[in-house]
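Person: At home tonight, work slowly through the protein below, taking as long as you need, and write a paragraph about the fold.
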Amino acid sequence: MLLALLGACAHMPVMSERECMARAMYFESNRSSEDGMLAVGTVVMNRVNSPKFPNDVCSVVGQPNQFAPGVMTRRMEAGKDLAFRMAAEVLRGKRHPGVRKAAFFHTAGYSYPYTNMHYVLVAGGNAFYEKRKDATASQASVTPGTREYAAAHRPARESIFDGWSDAAVPVAVVPASVAPQSRVLARPPEPQLQPVLVAAPQPVTVYRSVTPAPATARVARLAPPSGTPAARLAPLSIEEVIARSGGY
């Protein structure tokens, strides 16, 4: 009897890694979802690369009680072409970035009482998770359309200070001998109103807008020519006063 079984096994066709991978994708994921198939294929490869599982694709997919019943024997029908194409892409190195290091998944929507299930993705009708002691992500938090998912993926608020830096502020470098600070803002000072006295028949004070001068500078003022009595000066119009005082 044993010899007969061994003889029958010897004549069974050997599956390629591509077919084993395609079968796992086909029977475990939504058969029209490339995203879901890629996620299942990534889990298979994560197991192949883990010392806790067999080190080849067919052995991983064929492990008892790990994938769908009949995964290695049932007939594949509509949708198998997509499964074979995605299997080839995974074997060439393509991975689903959302799966990360997850080596486990179950049908989406089911819940379990275990506290070490850290969910990372819901795709193709499956919820993918890692087994971690510090599990914090729930299935709802990675399921699009849920309130938990919206809260977990809410973009950070922008600040009016975002992007500001010292490099963005115009500065002028001043030698230490000139100023105690080595960096000062190169922003022009605010204009101020400064009184300027001019000679006129009646004492008149005219205000004009000027820029504050350095501490060592002196503000020029109009004065009567030397030896000329102020009383003999001809009256000045406003335009002449403005012109002699330097304009606005």
